[in-house]
Here is the input.
Amino acid sequence: MNKLLLFLSVFISICMFTPNVKAASFYEAEYLDNIYMNRVKNGMVYYQRGRVFREVGTERIAYCIEPFATFNGGSNYTSVVRPGYLSDAQRQRISLLAQFGYGYQNRTDMIWYAVTQLLIWEAGDPSGTYYFTDGLNGPRTSALDGYINELNSIINDFLKDPSFMNQTFDIVEGQSLTLTDTNNSLGRYTSTDNNVTINGNTLTIQSLNEGDYNFELIKNSSFYSARIFYYISDKSQDLIVQGDIGYFTANFKVSVRKTTFEIEKIDADTNSTTASGEGILQGAIYEVYNAKMELLETLNIGEDFKASIDNLVYGTYYIKEVSPGIGYELDEEIYEFVLNKDNPSVFLQLKNKIIEKKLEIHKEYGDGLESKKEEGIIFDIFNNKEDYVTTIVTDYNGYASIILPFGTYKIIQRNTTDGYQKVEDFLISVDEDAELEFHLYNYKIQVPDTGIDKKESNFYLFPILLLGIGIYQKRIFI
Here is the structure.
């Protein structure tokens, strides 16, 4: 049907710009040796010896398109491009036979004329039956079937459009499109579009910006350098002369769209771009792979917590993290995303979990010889900016703990058991390798020297003081 519409459009354009040309006349010329033809309709058999029609004066070959009308020599004919009583399909078929039949390329044997005429009869009046005979009104013969089949095959092959005609192809801006014609007919077509290259049965389109495009290919069949005309007479059989059918067009469409793939890095705990602890979301690195897991691109999370790729072609892709931001755990998951004409933009929020460690404090107090669990001891925790973070308090076992995110912290003991010292403020670092279990010991505050029993007191007190200081320093940093 599309071929018929294309053919019709060609003929309409010819009608618009080519008026009826001139009057002409035709005559029955030479007989064809050993060629006999029968026409049958409504039970009537018309038999004849093959004979050629020619135009008076030019001797151009002509064919009858009304097999059951009478030819009257000397009748005047008027040339037209569209006899109204023929359908589009009939006009197309008859015109193609008139071009590719007798006289085209190496078809110079007059057998080709007879075969062309018989097939034109069939196209002009399909209600009849037409065949070659062995002798005048003799039995039907298949001797010329090879010629008939060859001419039909040539025309059918000519009418084949490239296999991708009347289709719409969806591509991405900047992507080249290569189409292969499985009908092997593309070589007959040309294109005036600078973006189109035809090489054999392969067509390539490049450098298309976003938009919708309609591409027209032109098939121009020119051999005789003269256009086909139909010659109409109200007193004789209508005829068609040899000539070129002109050009055919075939169309296909290309829809070009932009694609975007964007990721945003967020913290898994805050569910936003606000980092936990002293973590840094920026600087994380991702790799993007195609469906074959071939590396295509490396993305780095920027200061805006984002990274993107423009104009990935339609398909299935995968992305995985290869290096997290500072202070974050590596995200081991591989994410899949798909880009297509219905989903040209994909946005993913990818989360990372901050590195966390458990701070544990075991608190005791005593004189260095006897120890007790110290309950109710308050520890305030501050971050590296001296901002208060939280407070923990030891239980009846002298134990307190808390989960802290990546960062550096100061620990300050706020109270103590009456008569006992407090540990000095100390710093901890929460990172991947940190071990944060501390055993802290408070010693009893020493009584000032009164001078009473000085010798004995000094004898026993001095080593105890040395011992107490050593234990205190050791245990605070365990």
Q: What stands out?
A: Residues 203 and 237 are 45 Å apart (CA to CA). Residues 454-476 form the longest helix (23 residues). The chain has three domains: 2-167+224-246, 260-352, 356-476.
